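Course assignment 3, question 2. Fill in each field.
Student: A.L.
Task: Predict the tertiary structure for the chain below.
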Amino acid sequence: MVIAGVCECGYRHSDTILLTQKEPVRFTLQITSVEDLNARVIRSSSCTLRIPELGVDIEPGFASESYVSNVEGVLDRIEGVVSFATRSAREASSEESTRKGEEILEKIGLARDGRFPLTLVMEDPLGNSAIDCENAVKTPLSSKEAALLKTGMIIVDV
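Answer field:
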């Protein structure tokens, strides 16, 4: 089920909810070539996304949105956030944060050219996310691993 809402004020929210019960899951994709950037990414609002080589962890929050994209689209989203944070750090004269942001942006550029390997890890305690690519490795999360992940929502265990 796809949920989409748009307010006159410009606020938008969308989510994708699978109507079946799924097990907690981890998808891992090694990104080593330009072709890998085309792999389809389905991220639910309960998914934690990690790219260890960039030091990037994206955890779900209460306003987290789901999306369907590809690896390059995920890098675009990360690049936008890092660019904004780097500009803000530069304006605040924070040399360390500016340098770190510039390093991440450089690595993203190299990865787009297939010259910097990355690992995309998606962990979803509700099992609604996936990487649709034959090279992606799907592994179940243990209940302990799943319990440590944020879901972006309040879950009552009765």
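Instructor remarks: The two ends are 26 Å apart (CA to CA). The chain has a mean pLDDT of 90.
Grade: pending
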